[in-house]
């Protein structure tokens, strides 16, 4: 099974050679504001296998409140990817935002 992490611990996963931060919200939501360094892969776009995703990295998924990222994490985990889901999503995140 995959693990969950609190939003306050995201700084521990800043090594981009090992981790990829993924915003699973709609592109319009992503462009309104996202965590710096995050890429956007909307939940609806997750179809296995995911071309372009390395099985060597760990994907840290977040959404608005955490429910959609849990669903996305389950789907990617079942597809053989290393994943973590952010508990509480952006609602629990208090760091800087990018636009």
Automatic annotation (TrEMBL):
It holds the Pfam family Rhodanese. One of its GO terms (molecular function) is thiosulfate-cyanide sulfurtransferase activity. Residues 15-99 form the Rhodanese domain. This is Rhodanese-like domain-containing protein. It comes from Candidatus Scybalocola faecigallinarum.
């Amino acid at each position: 099974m995959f693990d969950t992490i609190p939003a306050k611990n995201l700084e521990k996963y800043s090594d981009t050679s090992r981790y990829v931060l993924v915003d699973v919200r709609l592109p319009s939501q992503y462009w309104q504001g996202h965590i710096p360094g995050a890429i956007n892969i909307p939940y609806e776009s997750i179809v296995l296998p995911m071309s372009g995703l390395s099985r060597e990295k760990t994907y840290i998924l977040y959404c608005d409140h955490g429910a959609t990222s849990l669903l996305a994490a389950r789907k990617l985990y079942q597809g053989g990817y290393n994943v973590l889901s952010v508990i509480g999503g952006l609602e629990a995140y208090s760091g800087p935002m990018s636009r």
